[in-house]
Amino acid sequence: MSHEKYIRQIALPLVGRSGQQKLGHSRVLVVGAGGLGNAVLPYLASAGIGSIGVIDGDRVSLSNLHRQVLFSESDIGELKAAVACEKIAKQFPEAMLTHYSEFLTGENALKLFAQYDIILDATDAIDIRYLINDACIVTGKSFVHASVYRFQFQVALFNANNSGTYRCLYPTAPKTTQSCEEAGVMPSTVAMAGLYEVNEVFKYLLDIGKSQINSLLLVDTLSNEQNNFSFERKNQDHITRVFFEKEYQRIEQLAFANTEKDGYFLDVRELDEQPTIALENYVQIPLSALEKSLELVPTNNPIYLFCQSGKRSKTAYRILQGKGYAKLFCLTENAIEINEITFEIIE
Amino acid sequence: MRVHYFGEIADIIGKNTDDLVLKNASVSELLSYLQSTHKLLVDDIHIAVNHQIVSKEKDTQLNETDEIAVLSPFAGG
């Protein structure tokens, strides 16, 4: 690492060479490569954070470009996490960048979080923040949060040195909220929110200043007013690995006898596997081709998944869940049992 | 009693601040007012009294000089 490059921040008495070394040895995971992700990544890398991970399964679209400034029109349709890392790597070759072109889920969160020192929430949906929060509690990691509504944004650092968590502030998810897509947003508002997040990351890693713990910062960029709202830390002992698995790794199962007429039976076995199944509303898409064949899977009807043993149908369940399918069930029976049941019905 | 609204709540109500006169000034009374007058869902909103977010289960009494804020989580990013 060239000290010359960071000499202006090393000159700060609260940073110095030892602080710079701390940043160089730090690992930060950015969840989301949208507006906030684009704002934080250049500054994490430029300050000399040694290892930066970016996770996002989304692709660049035209309406992203006004606030997601790492992307250009030629990137439309490309995976955000990969493009963002490519751009940052060109400008800051010292940073070790890892991109994960998938969405954060209950399946990948714990393993991923364990590899990083701090998690930066750059997402744009409330539900995912409970997943981040709970995965941070289970893995013992802190996370910096920011979220935006029109010209206002909120920032806080959660689960740091036994501080309050997102659930202490907001115990349950609201029934309705608007995203940036729905409510509209100026690029400067998202950028400011992101820079507050990066600043919290630096303070946490360097152990300097006053972290935004047990208190939510709410900034109004129209009036330039800032409010700090303190909140009580509540006992979170119930957020355990068992709770996490139940909450985020649950698979809805259903017996064949309880399926409904408007549902579709999705067989994810390979086409040549036996026995062949004769059912109404039956679709066969091998697991290997599922992601490329989503147009064949109805979105509004219940989907009953099965395979030969029940293993591939669970993987298919996660894929469809990640794509936003809501009425998903893995059948408790699989091809052989289903074949016997349907045979009996025909007889 | 001066009440400040933030985020989506301010947009739903149509203003950033209100001067309210409540019969029995308490957090539960304020929540009932917000629910009945502005159709806000009590579960989705949070009340801060003098910059301290208060539990909705405890019926905190409110004074005329208290600074009240009504806020909710933001989704965007």
Q: What separation lies between the terminal Cα atoms of chain B?
A: 33 Å
Please report the two chains with the greatest interface, counting residues with C-beta closer than 8 angstroms to the partner's C-beta: A-B, 43 and 22 residues
Share in helix of chain B: 10-25%
The strands making up the biggest β-sheet of chain A line up spatially as 3-2-1-4-5-6-7-8
Structural class label of chain A: alpha/beta
What is the number of E strands of chain B? 5
How much of the sequence of chain B is in beta strands? 15-25%
What is the helix content of chain A? 25-40%
- The coarse silhouette of chain B is globular
Class computed from helices, strands and strand pairing of chain B: alpha+beta
Percent of residues of chain A in beta strands? 15-25%
Radius of gyration of chain A: 23 Å
Number of strands of chain A: 13
- State the end-to-end distance of chain A: 75 Å
Indicate the mean pLDDT of chain A. 94
Q: Largest beta sheet of chain B: what is the strand line-up?
A: 2-1-5-3-4
The sequence of SSEs of chain B as H and E is: EHEHEEE
What is the arithmetic mean of pLDDT of chain B? 94
From the spread of the alpha carbons, the general shape of chain A counts as elongated
Low-confidence stretches of chain A: none
Instruction: Figure out the total of helices of chain A.
Output: 12
Itemize the secondary structure elements and their pairings.
The complex is a heterodimer of chains A (347) and B (77).
Chain A: H1 7-10, H2 16-24, E1 27-31, H3 35-46, E2 51-55, H4 80-91, E3 96-100, H5 109-113, E4 118-121, H6 126-139, E5 142-149, E6 152-158, H7 166-169, H8 180-183, H9 187-206, E7 215-220, E8 225-230, H10 241-248, E9 253-254, E10 264-267, E11 282-284, E12 303-306, H11 311-322, E13 328-331, H12 335-346
Parallel strand pairs in A: 1-2, 1-4, 2-3, 4-5, 9-13, 10-11, 10-12, 12-13
Antiparallel strand pairs in A: 5-6, 6-7, 7-8
Helix pairs in contact in A: 3-9
Chain B: E1 2-5, H1 7-13, E2 17-19, H2 27-38, E3 46-49, E4 52-53, E5 68-71
Parallel strand pairs in B: 1-5
Antiparallel strand pairs in B: 1-2, 3-4, 3-5
